[in-house]
Amino acid sequence: MNGRARHFMIAAGLVLSAFAAIPAVYGKQDLVANLSDHEIAITTGFTGAKLLLFGAIEGEGQIVVVVTGPRQSVKVRRKERVAGIWINTDSMTFDNVPSFYAVATTKPLEQIDPDIRSRQEMGLNHLNLRPADIDDDVSMEDINAFREGLVRNQVRHGLYSASSGRITLVSDRLFDTWVSFPANVVTGIYTVSVYYIQDGNPVHAQTTPLRVSKIGLGAYAFRFAHNNAAAYGVFAIVIAVLAGWLAAVIFRKV
Amino acid sequence: MHVYLPIAEISVNVFLILGMGGMIGVLSGLFGVGGGFLMTPLLIFMGVPPAVSVATSANQIVASSVSGVIAHWRRGNVDFKMGLVLLVGGVFGSSAGVALFTLLRTFGQIDLVINLSYVIFLGTIGLLMLNESVRAIVRSRRPTVRRSKLHQHTWLHGLPLKMRFRRSKLYISALLPLGIGFCVGLLTALMGVGGGFVMVPAMIYLLGMPTGVVVGTSLFQIIFVTANVTFLQAINTQTVDVVLAVTLLVGAVIGAQFGTRLGVKLKGEHLRSLLALMVLGVCAKIAVDLVVTPADLYSVDFLMGHG
User: Fold this and answer.
1) Residue A236 is nearest to which of B59, B108, B298, comparing CB atoms?
2) Angle at A20 between CA A17 and CA A24, to 5 degrees
3) Cβ within 8 Å of residue B85, ≥6 positions away
4) A179 with A40: CB under 8 angstroms?
5) Core-most of A14, B35, B130, B304, by most CB within 10 Å?
6) What is the pLDDT along chain B (307 residues), one digit of tens a residue?
C-alpha cells in the first residue's frame, strides 16, 4: 500500500468513525481505531500479511496496540549435555500461551504503571505465562528461564514482537501502525486491542477481532487430511505412483 | 515464487523444493536408495516440522521408486520373487516402527532417537561400504590377484525354509530376506527413509545377491514399504503434505531418470564408494550437531492443533 492510499484509508476511517460517534455525546469519544482488513486469508501463495491499524485520539496521551493470537498449550524443553551430546531433559508446560503476540506503542512502555502492563499483557516480559502444574521443588529461576526460552523461540520464528515507541502521532491526533503476520501464523480468531493511556493509566480501550483462516486448495487439502485420513493416505499414494509411472513413460521416449 | 504448504503450515520457495527433489532423484536413480536419508534432514533444516518431513519424504519416495523401478525392470534388473519376500518382512517391520515412533514421541525423545539412529547406521554402513569398495577398486587394478569365491558359506546358509531365487542365482533360506525386510522396515518408519542405504548393502553382503539386480529389487520393495508408512502416518499423525510431496516428486522423478542412465555408465565398486562417501558426510553432519552446543537450549512444542 502506498502512502497516499494509506492516508486515504486513515481519512476514510476517521470519517466513518466520526459518523459512528455522532449519536454519542459529542466529544466523549476520545479514541477511535480500525483495521485495514478484518480477515487474513491463507491462500496457496500466502507468504505472510501486513495490516494497517489506524485511528485518532482526542487529548494528550499515548497509544498502546496489543495483538494476540489464539491461545494454546505449549511444552518447553531444555537440553542438557549428557555424555557429550545434547539431550532434552527437563520440560515445562504452559497453558493459554498466545500463538501470536505483537505490541506497538507511541512512547516507551516503561512509562506505564507495571501493574497495568501485567494486567493488559503489555510487553514481552509482561505476558501472563504460568506453568500448568508446578511442583514445589521447581525454583522461580527455573520458571523464569523456561518462560524466557519460550518467548525467545517465538521471537525467532517471527511470532512475537515488541516495537516500543514505534507508532508516530500526526499532529498529536492521528496514528497508524503496521502489524506483520509471518507465513507460519496459526488460524483462528485474533484480538487487536488499542489502549489510550493518560498519566500512565488506560482511559479508553477498543478491541477488534481479526480472523485468520485458510481458503482455497490449501484449506481443502488440510480438511481432507484431517477429516478423511484414510482416503487422504490412499490419495497421496495413488498420486505418487501415477507421477512416477508418468515420468518413466515420458522419459522412455527421450 | 512461494507456495504455502497446507499441512506443514509454512511458505516455501517452489524452485528450492524442485531443485532439492531433483538432486535427491539423481541419487535415487544412481544408487537405488530412496534418498530419504538426505531428504528428511534437508526438509527439517528448511523449517518443515520433523513429523511432516518424515511422513512426506515417505510419500515422495513412493514416486521416485516407481519411476526408478520401471527403468530397471526394462533392463530385467528386478528380482520380483526376492522383492516380494523382502516386502512381506518390510510391511510388518514398518508397522511396528510407526507404533514405536508414536511411543517415543510421547517421551519427547524422538528427535534424539532419530539422530542417534542416523549416526549409528549411516556411520557403520558408510565405513563398511567404503572399506569394501576401495578394496575392490584396488583389486581390479591388480589383475594378477587370484579370483575369490563367488560367496562364502556361513551359518546363515544353514537356516531352514530354503527358496530358489533364479534372477539372483541364489538358493537360500527365506527367513534371511524376511528378517532383513523387517529390520529395514522398522528403520524406514523410525527415520523417515526408504531404507535403501541399509537394504542395498544387506542384499550384497548378507544375501550375496549380484550387484546388477540389487538396485532394481531394492527400489521395488521400497515402493511398498514407503506406501505403507505414508498410509499409517496419514491415519495416525495427519502429517503427509501432498503439496510438498508433489512439488518434490516433480523434481525427483526427472532427476531419477538421469541418475539411472548415469548409473549404467559407472562401475559397481565406484558407485558403492561414492554412496559410502555421501552416507558418511550426512553422518558426520548429524554427529557434529549432536555435540556442538545448540544456539538455543530451549525448544518449543505447541501441543494440540488449533484452538
Assistant:
1) B59
2) 120
3) B163, B174, B177, B178, B181
4) no
5) B35
6) 888 888 888 888 899 999 988 888 887 777 766 677 778 878 887 878 877 888 898 888 888 788 878 878 888 888 888 889 998 999 899 889 888 887 887 777 777 887 888 888 888 888 888 888 888 888 877 665 455 555 555 666 666 677 777 777 777 777 888 998 998 888 878 777 777 777 887 888 888 888 778 888 888 888 888 899 899 888 888 889 988 998 888 888 788 778 878 877 877 778 778 888 888 888 898 888 888 888 888 888 776 543 3
**DSSP label at A131?**
B
Domain spans of chain B, in order of start: 2-142+153-291
The ipTM (two decimal places) reads 0.80
Q: How far is CA A214 from CA A40, A97, A222, B11, B202, in A?
A: 8, 22, 9, 13, 46
3-state secondary structure of A38: coil
Residue that has been written with the C-alpha cell 493511556 in this structure: A197
Q: Domains plus CATH for chain A?
A: 3-213 (2.60.40.1930), 215-254 (no CATH)
CA distance A217 to B11: 14
Q: State whether A78 and B298 contact (CB < 8 Å).
A: yes
CA dist A127 and A140 (Å) reads 16
Q: Which three cell numbers stand for residue A50?
A: 501486513
Interface of B with A in 241-270 (CB under 8 A): 242-243, 245-246, 249-250, 253-254, 256-257
Rounded Cα–Cα distance for residues A144 and A133 (Å): 15
- DSSP annotation of A108 reads -
A210 touches chain B (CB under 8 A): no
**Are residues B302 and A72, on separate chains, in Cβ contact within 8 Å?**
yes
Cβ(B61)–Cβ(B253) under 8 Å? no
Please, are residues B67 and B35 in contact by the beta-carbon 8 Å criterion?
A: no
| Residue the block writes with cell 484509508 | A9
Total residue length of chain B:
307
CA distance A219 to B6: 7
Opening angle at CA B59, ends B55 and B62, nearest 5: 140
Q: What are the CA-CA distances from residue B8 to residues A66, B193, B200, B250 (Å)?
A: 27, 18, 31, 19
Neighbouring residues of B136: CB distance < 8 A, sequence distance ≥ 6? B268, B269, B272
Closest-CA residue of A relative to B291 is: A85
With a CB cutoff of 8 Å and minimum separation 6, the contacts of A214 are A41, A42, A187, A222, B6
Using the Cβ of A34 and the Cβ atoms of chain B, whether some distance falls under 8 Å is answered with no
Task: Please count the other Cβ atoms lying within 10 Å of the Cβ belonging to residue B256.
Answer: 35
Phi-psi region of B178 (alpha: psi -120 to 50; beta: other; left: phi over 0): alpha
Look up residue A132 and give its three cell numbers.
Answer: 500448568
CA pair distance B289, B123, nearest whole angstrom: 15
Region class of B259: left (phi > 0), else alpha (psi between -120 and 50), else beta: alpha
